[in-house]
Amino acid sequence: MVGVIRNFLEGISDLHLIYTHHPLLLRFFLLYPELMSRFGHRVLELWFSWEDSSYEELDDVPSAGHPTLPASLGDLFHILRSSPSILLILLDLIYSSPGDIAHKVLIVLRTFLRRHEDVQVGGLIRGHFLLILQHLLVEHGTSPSEVSGNLPLLLSLLSVVQLRNESEQELDSMAMKLLHQVSKLCGKCSPTDMDILQPSFNFLYWSLHQTTLGSQKRAAAVLLSSTALIELLEKMLALTWAEEGSPRTTLLCSAWLLTASFSAQQHDGSLQVHQTMSVELDQVLKSLSFPKKNAALLSAAILRFLRTALQQSFSSALVTLVPSGALPLQAPEDSVLAPMGTSQVLSLVIGLQNLLVQKDPLLSYACVGCLEALLDYLHARSPDMALHVASQPWNRFLLFTLLDAGENSFLRPEILRLVTLFMRFQSSSILTHEEVGLVLQGAALADLSTLSNTTLQALRGFLLQVQSMGLLADHNMAQTLQASLEGLSPKAFSAQPPLQDMLCLGGVAISLSHIRD
């Protein structure tokens, strides 16, 4: 019977001549493989073209706990659950359909993936997307502007698939091929191809951070081999301080985070460098002293980059920080701090203090991490300079400004790390022994079960620092400290559910641990 129907339908020039918009007709065509393989694409295209809703409201309600789906979508989702291979037809529709239909399909597919996380289709979608991307690069190899206008939609869907993987997973051969193809696509773009680059950068960043250490090294090696990608990143970083022609702030954030990630992976794994990058150190420091308005995320990304450079003692084989123009005459004591000078160090410290006062959580993590790396860098070269920076009177004002945020505000992880840092450099002028005792008393009274793993780890670092410095003359307080440390063993961290590490903030892929740790 199905064969007869197929033969009849093949004699019709276009299905729209007999199409009727009804869920039972859709189910009929998608239920039988013989019909789905021959007519599924056209029937689904007609289905979406007849749907009145644009589904825009679904993008604002990404989780399953939100309002009920329209009945028509409920029927479609039921069919998709029973036959996930239909998702491949939807991918083809996103690639080949007119813009309005493609956008509808994208929203529907995104909504399905978000609401049905138990349906394991990541490999299926990635494999099909790889075929589409390879075809595009062969057909339009020289100019991404000639590539299908729907490619950014497909790339954004790839990021949704990536976000579904909460746990670290090994990157298989297909994932590596996809990384190579996406990096190849990026390398053919200019900084103005923002619609393609933003989802592509997000995918590359998540691929680097949402996998095991072994896979990170292999992925970084693949990406570092793309000289065109490295050249593009160098151009984009320089556009951060350009007065005209600068890309969107979100894309600049991704470029800085990717560069920091590449530099760290290359340095830690001693990976081969095929193309080096140069970044103007003066401009980096200036961008932190005079940040753009409403650009906390960009400042956090640049801080992550600078922190990486400081941790490597500016010895990266991939990224060289160079002066902007002619070098001024340096004081003798500046030579040990090179490539930074004393004035640059102090300017950076003031910039970090000003950024911390904004009390933006993500930016605060980035600032404290950068300050930790800066003081370690200074201590290795000039302990006196490190002590001078840590003992700046403004640090005390900064600390108490941050503490003026309600009861138990000292239990915020960034503040605990800041206090620990000042104590490590014995800055008693910033926090007296009596004030350390007050923090300890507050910590002893806190309900540890309500604190996040990040806070518990910062609290343990603070308590260990207190213990190592022998600041406790009071025997009872010492016993309380020891009990607290035992309660803060690494086992206690693993007993708590981890917070989601991979986020998309304002369209930018972020790993909280990359910014924070």
TrEMBL record:
<dbReference type="InterPro" id="IPR052133">
    <property type="entry name" value="Immune_Signaling-Apoptosis_Reg"/>
</dbReference>
<protein>
    <submittedName>
        <fullName>Meiotic double-stranded break formation protein 1</fullName>
    </submittedName>
</protein>
<dbReference type="GO" id="GO:0007127">
    <property type="term" value="P:meiosis I"/>
</dbReference>
